[in-house]
């Protein structure tokens, strides 16, 4: 199976280095380093023949559409090798399976590609909202110290104003799932073509809240009808503070290992990443 890995990187270069060594050398890995991050800590990855660091870098603020654009840039890079499966994870994610077991799990596609058609008001409201979280000055999770607007911000506000005049497109169905996903290779060009061609849909999601959990799932869900199957792709714990919970001890991770998740998020210590990878390979 030809695998391509896409990584949204920001704060955990040493954990990512551990994960990269876990994957086989013929798995191609594409890394987007957030524009807010220093690139020097990731420099060691440049020496690895199966790692490509994207030149284009987005300022991927929480809840904004630039997160989606970074994902799409990774998919576009991976599309050049025509992969059978594209896996997306963050640099602070650690795989909980060996590569061989990962492939077996991917072959059982029923376990990992749920796209949930939603009538949940919270999600519908995120789509219906007219906001622009790509602007630092008004992003709810960005530092409040600087409220100046840039020329790009002004252009975004013009786009938001135009959307308010014409309204968002009506969707036959809104699909929702985690940002972290596995995508069949043949679906990658379909997603990229819809992004480029369907301006109204793109702009409707651009000015929504947390579109990374809605835009690509809606493109795929409208194509294949979606699925309500359990998601065992990425584990993150939102029951404890800080949300999602930052893990420090191997003993805290018994549940995702027991439930056979493919990845776990929020690992910032390389020593813990090594312990997890050793346990996963046992």
Residues in helices, as a percent range? 25-40%
Helix and strand succession? EHEEHEEHEHHEEHHHEHEH
CATH superfamily of the domain at 3-119 and 172-230: Spore Coat Polysaccharide Biosynthesis Protein SpsA, Chain A
Structural class: alpha/beta
Number of DSSP-assigned strands: 10
Name the shape in a single word. Answer: globular
Q: What would you say the CATH architecture of the domain at 3-119 and 172-230 is? A: Alpha-Beta Complex
Q: Could you please describe the fold and organization of this structure?
A:
With 282 residues, the protein is of the alpha/beta class. The protein has a domain at 3-119 and 172-230: Spore Coat Polysaccharide Biosynthesis Protein SpsA, Chain A (Alpha-Beta Complex). The protein is built from 10 helices and 10 strands. It has helices at 13-22, 66-79, 99-107, 121-128, 151-166, 187-197, 199-206, 215-224, 254-258, 270-281, and strands at residues 3-9, 28-33, 51-53, 85-90, 94-95, 116-117, 175-176, 182-184, 234-235, 263-264. The strands form 3 sheets. It has a 5-stranded mixed beta sheet, sandwiched between helices. Helix 1 (13-22) links the parallel strand 1 (3-9) and strand 2 (28-33). Helix 1 packs parallel to helix 10 (270-281) and helix 2 (66-79) packs across helix 6 (187-197). The two termini are 23 Å apart. The mean pLDDT is 92. It is found in: Membrane.
